[in-house]
Amino acid sequence: MNQEFIIYITSRMLWTITKVAGPILLATLLVGLIIAVFQSATQIQEMTLTFIPKIIVVGVILLILGAWMGSQIIGFTTELINSIPAVVK
Questions:
Q1: Is the Cβ–Cβ distance between 59 and 77 less than 8 Å?
Q2: For 28-42, what is each residue's pLDDT tens digit?
Q3: Distance between CA 28 and CA 50 in Å, rounded?
Q4: 72 and 20 in contact (C-beta within 8 Å)?
Q5: Triad 22, 56, 71: Cα angle to 5°
Q6: Which of 33, 39, 48, 70 is the least buried, fewest Cβ under 10 Å from its Cβ?
Q7: Is 0.90 topped by the overall pTM?
Q8: Distance between CA 45 and CA 14 in Å, rounded?
Q9: What element of type H or E holds 3?
């Protein structure tokens, strides 16, 4: 096992994490921003108002992109498992 392989696997891992978690994080960021602007404009400071829409958005994103996210994770795992014989030599 050499440094190039470790750097390659680490970069692939970070890229896969970014691709999989990115849509959920961006969607909750946008919903949180919209709710913050709404709360600021109306001066409604209810704490539960921020959680429920974010939970709903995360559920919708998982329903829409869940299969794609799973395939990305499975693809990375398959690549990692297939590279084991090259590492063991």
A1: no
A2: 999 999 999 998 898
A3: 10
A4: yes
A5: 40
A6: 48
A7: no
A8: 37
A9: helix 3-42
